[in-house]
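Ticket 4471: requesting a sanity check on a complex prediction with zinc ion. Repro inputs:
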Amino acid sequence: MKKNNFQVQPLPAADRPDRRDAEEAVRTLLRWTGEDPNRDGLVETPSRVVRAFEEYFRGYAEDPEQILHKTFEEIEGYDEMIVLRGIRFESHCEHHMAPIIGRAWVGYIPTGKVVGISKLARIVDVYAKRLQIQEKMTAQIAQAIQTVLEPEGVGVVIKAEHHCMTTRGIHKPGTDLVTSRMLGVFRDDPKTRQEFLSMID
Ligand SMILES: [Zn+2]
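Returned structure tokens:
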């Protein structure tokens, strides 16, 4: 299969610092803020931060193709839209490493095979658990499903709050950013697009 933009290869392990270097980097940031990383309350912080990073960025270790690989073909000719709505996710922006908290709507029209619905949520997480910009994440989710499942089309809508503009910078809480990516019939057929968009609240 051709490697598409949905397949982002992480740095090879040999090019990455080890855990001790990562913890040292956190200590450096703590000192930079004016803190003493050796005081009681902060002694364990670097290792906690590194563990948290493992969770925030675990998507680099996951392969979207693998997740979508197992499909079900006994679907009695089902060929209508399948939509998983309001999938909550947490991500981090690649410009500030600030949280992006939002929800995703993922729909597709199958051609002969479907994936387990939890896989749609996992695909959102694979891309959320990386450094992101929302526009790219929206496109990657749609492209992964389109390439691996080869459905009639895919629609992805994401609404998210960006903490780099709600809790810092321009400080505009209550705003969210809406992005969408439509492929196949979701792009070409206005009725399909409308049906999908009517399921988004
Ligand atoms: Zn940002």
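Notes from triage: Residues 93, 95-96, 98, 164 surround zinc ion (CB under 6 Å). Leaving this open until the requester confirms.
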